[in-house]
Design a protein that fits this description.
The chain is α+β, with helices and mostly antiparallel strands. Helix content is 23%, strand content 21%. The protein folds into two domains: 7-94, N-terminal domain of MutM-like DNA repair proteins, CATH 3.20.190.10; 122-246, Helicase, Ruva Protein, domain 3 (Orthogonal Bundle), CATH 1.10.8. It is globular. The chain starts with 6 loop residues before the first helix and ends in an 11-residue tail after the last strand. Zinc ion is lined by residues 227, 229-230, 232, 247, 249-250.
Length: 257
């Protein structure tokens, strides 16, 4: 985020405003206000949005809060302070098309296609992969300008589900592998949403509840454990700075050039 405003200025601009809608774009939560502006919230590593009664006990690490007439309060808690809340004109967000284009002034200058949008078809995904054919798949899936909203855990899980090695190049996939990866991305994200996310350390939902996805990881965090499909030990390596897990048997390494 650049050009962050002092909290008191933001507070003055949202005072008395009404939230007219809520949206998500990639990993960003967006609250549309009746002032023509929107609050764009990025939780990052340890951020949490908590919905509490305004007279509820204090939560730790609260960096900001919004008090509603109803007596409820929205608290933004963030242990490590990587999260961000910015106020931007709605126009800047609406200027994007459904299949992902520009979000000027938002936290990300540009976000890729939404996995749950109608535009995210297998053939569209195939074209996107072709356009980035030299890229390694794992870092590519994490690139928010490619597909928006896939984090490290879900990139690991999707590649495992699709039986594709994280270091394969985007252009090397056969048609059926593209289809498998497309389905695997959706399946991994849907399962995580059903289980309300992954609470490895800090994550909590708006009611303060832990997610349950971490109990169902197929490969993430399972270094040296047996693969559920074939029994080979899961491997871990750092790829582009992120912990990457795969089964060396089910996810065959690309041939060396
Ligand atoms: Zn395996």
């Amino acid at each position: 985020m650049t050009g962050a405003e002092p909290p008191e200025l933001v507070a003055a601009r949202v005072a008395g405003a009404r939230i007219e809608g809520t949206r998500r774009r990639g990993k960003l939560a967006i609250l549309d206000l009746d002032t023509g502006e929107a609050l764009v919230i990025s939780l990052r590593m340890t951020g949490k949005l908590l919905s509490r009664s305004a007279d509820a006990a204090a939560d730790p690490y609260v960096r900001g809060h919004f008090i509603f007439e109803s007596g409820r309060e929205l608290r933004f808690s963030d242990t490590r302070k990587f999260g961000r809340i910015v106020l931007v004109p709605q126009q800047a967000i609406r200027a994007e098309s459904a299949d992902g284009a520009r979000a000027k002034g938002a936290l990300h200058e540009r976000l890729g296609i939404e996995p749950f949008s109608r535009a995210f078809t297998t053939s569209r995904f195939a074209r996107l992969l072709t356009a980035r054919q030299r890229s390694r798949l794992k870092p590519l899936l994490l690139d928010q300008t490619f597909v928006a909203g896939i984090g490290n855990i879900y990139a690991n899980e999707a590649l495992y589900r699709a039986r594709i090695h994280p270091l394969r190049s985007a252009g090397s996939l056969r048609r059926e592998q593209v289809r498998a990866l497309h389905q695997a991305i959706l399946a991994a994200l849907r399962r995580a949403i059903t289980l309300r996310g992954s609470s490895i350390d800090d994550y909590r939902d708006a009611r303060g509840r832990r997610g349950r996805m971490q109990r169902e990881f197929l490969v993430h965090g399972r270094e040296d454990e047996p693969c559920a499909r074939c029994g080979h030990a899961i491997r871990k390596a750092w790829v582009a700075g992120r912990g990457t897990y795969w089964c060396p048997h089910c996810q065959r390494a690309p041939a060396r050039r």
